[in-house]
Amino acid sequence: MSFLTLEQENTIKEKMVTDEKILKQMYRAKKKTFHELCVKPSEFPIYEKDGWKILAPLKTKIKIQKDKKHSEIFEDNIWCQFYELGYRYLNRDENFILPFNKGIKDKKQIDVIAINNDTIFLVECKSSEKSKKAPSYKDEFDVLKLRLDGFKKSLSQVFGKEKKVKYIFATRNIRLNAESDDMQRLLESNAFYYSDSTYDYINNLIKNYKNAAQYQFLGLLFKNEKINNSKIEVPAVEGKMGNKTYYMFSIEPSLLLKMGFILHRTKANENEMPTYQRLLIPSRLKGITKFIDNGGYFPNSLIINFHSNKKIQFEASPRDKTSNSRMGTLKIPNEYAIAYIIDGQHRLYGYANSKFIDTNTIPVVALNGLESVEQLSIFMDINQNQKAVSPSLRLVLEEDLFWNAERADSRIKALRSSIIKQLSISTGPLQNKISIGEDPAVLSADPFAKAILRSGLLPKVQGNQYDAKTTAASLYNVNNTNYSQEMTNTKKSIVSFINMCYELVEDEFSSIFDDDKFFIVSNRGTYPFIMIIGSLNSFLVEEGILSYKSSAKDRYTSIEKYLRALLIGLENLSDDDAKKYLIIRGAGAETTWLRFFQSIINSKFSKYEPSDLIDWKERQNEALQNEGREYGEQIEKYIKKTILDNLKELYKDKWELEIGSIMRECQNRASLEDEKNYKEGIDKEKTDWTEMFNINDYKTIIEKHWSKKPDNNTNFKSFENIFAIDMGFGFNSKAEKIKWISHFNSYRNLWAHAGTKEKRLNKVEVEFLKKIYSALTSS
């Protein structure tokens, strides 16, 4: 007896579209974020009440437009994604109703349905305008398994029993916890959770792989599920290398494309971690396809790893006594995504659009059951002398490479990598906001990496030696010798702590959180915000309020009032004050913003005054800068006059010849200066070469003529008498006695540029200049 009536069958078919022309029109309309209509002018008032606006007048009608709701946009995006993947049998509109039982009410609306020769996808879409935690889907997921059984009966009756059916629960801006009961219910029904990360990943696949993306897509959604009932048996050679058994064989690309899967470093593949592959280069892929179709071939083998739970079977022929390898037949389970492509994805996917996809065979070296870290190691070994692994990918691979390393500094790097990844995949405010490997996102992982290591949340370490000054405030217990356990616990604590801090911004300061060009959720803002969290944690540890035993909740509760003061300060900034800091670009922005954040908190809580903030305040003090600059300029004038006077006294009219090489350098600088002035239209007298001495020239002259005196002048003071100054660097050798000159030269860069606030003097440095000035003028 049929599950559906003939009328129900026809209704379902009528709601589907296969006409290519209609599908193209629908695709163009669905790609837009608004609806468009042409109506008579007299009809417009009716539409205007419903939010429509006039877009353009036509001859007899007007074109009107209305923005789509976020839920409509999401459903249309999913529909378009299936169209771009090559599906040409899609639902006509949102009114597709599918029965799951024989009762009148036993039916459900499906947002997107996509069908091809082998598969049927049913997609339910849930979206939110802004990012939020998922509500409970218990009622919906509790009955999902039973409904899916009914859906499959309906679909097999209408479209045939041979097609595989997959239900997709797709969300946008909804953070569904991977550990939640709802997620477990969803996965138990053999459904697939299509998160923001998955959507972005599939978009990137389509962009880079074009219509070949369907193979990776199917592997992702049907992993380890049977492709069809056909057997895969290939002639092969079995051998051993490095205590590993491997198989060498040739196989049609059309088969390997379905069985293969590429471990792209993306949050969509987080269950497969460690993952390590880059997305392929579209232009290179197109070139490879053309090369193959023109008769080209690649004699080197692809390297793969079989990971299926079902064993790879090898039926061997009798072994030849002259070799340790043996021939036979390799029996491979006919399943999606059972073979991880370690090396050769470009070569394999070059065949996806080739006319030889079914007729050529490609050589393969296959390993079986390699651990993920072993695959990663092979990938890194192969690629170390080829195209460099990108810094962002290398950063996130550190977790997998170094988690069990012997050196403590390597393990801390692995912990940092794991923290960043967890922040991006957890259900906190940073979910999907941090770029991990191949995932594009609004935030780069790099500022998180720098800040987490420098913030004090983790201890500083070199080799296996921890910096004792940094262990007290860190959340990592250096005395726990169970490294993996401590790293796991620390990751959980730091991720929870940081998430709570960002939740304060998201929940109570949404205008700051939602602005990705402002001070917090931006690449320039990440470093100072994480550093502030660490700085406040260190401050409260020093105050005895926190310790490494404190929970993440206690830490957050203790620093909340300080963070709130910062956020209120940022929220109330005038446009001019905000602009003053927002225009700062480059690496300098991170430190400047950090000091700015610290100063806001310090203005409300004076006890919070880190040493680096004190230093920064001093460098902003104009009176202090003027004082230091005055000392510096007077010192330099004194050095120049004294050196020239002494040289003239020592060598009379031959003094220029005595410093000939320096004179020529100065003359060259003077000539360049004159040329520059001329080209810039500056009318200025010719530059005297004696105006072009630099501090190193003075130092060279002082060293060379250190103790020389004229024969007939008993009152003459040598350079040694004048320039030997004890500034605490030692006072034995000549080098120690004039070491202050090198320090003076470095400070000169701080006071010589009056217009910059990036290179300035602090109180200690001004005091140094004052002591030099006093020593010289009193000699």
Describe this structure in words.
By secondary structure, the protein is α+β, with helices and mostly antiparallel strands. The protein has four domains: 6-33 and 68-194, Trna Endonuclease, Chain: A, domain 1, CATH 3.40.1350; 223-389, no CATH class; 407-610, no CATH class; 622-777, no CATH class. 48% of the residues lie in helices and 15% in strands. The chain has 31 helices and 21 strands. The strands form six sheets. An eight-stranded mixed beta sheet has the order 14-18-15-19-13-12-17-16. The longest helix has 30 residues, at 622-651. The model has no long low-confidence stretch (mean pLDDT 86).
Show the helix and strand layout.
Elements: H1 6-14, E1 16-17, H2 20-30, E2 34-39, H3 44-48, E3 53-57, E4 62-67, H4 70-84, E5 90-91, E6 96-99, E7 107-110, E8 112-115, E9 119-133, H5 138-142, H6 144-159, E10 164-175, H7 181-188, E11 192-194, H8 196-209, H9 213-221, E12 232-241, E13 244-251, H10 253-259, E14 260-261, H11 282-293, E15 302-306, E16 313-316, E17 326-332, E18 339-343, H12 345-350, E19 362-368, H13 372-383, H14 391-402, H15 408-425, H16 445-454, E20 461-462, E21 465-466, H17 483-508, H18 510-513, H19 523-542, H20 552-571, H21 575-582, H22 587-604, H23 611-620, H24 622-651, H25 655-658, H26 660-679, H27 695-704, H28 719-723, H29 734-737, H30 739-751, H31 763-777
Parallel strand pairs: 9-10, 10-11, 14-18, 15-19
Antiparallel strand pairs: 1-5, 2-4, 3-4, 6-7, 8-9, 12-13, 12-17, 13-19, 15-18, 16-17, 20-21
Helix pairs in contact: 8-9, 14-15, 15-16, 15-17, 16-19, 17-20, 19-20, 19-22, 20-22, 24-27, 24-30, 24-31
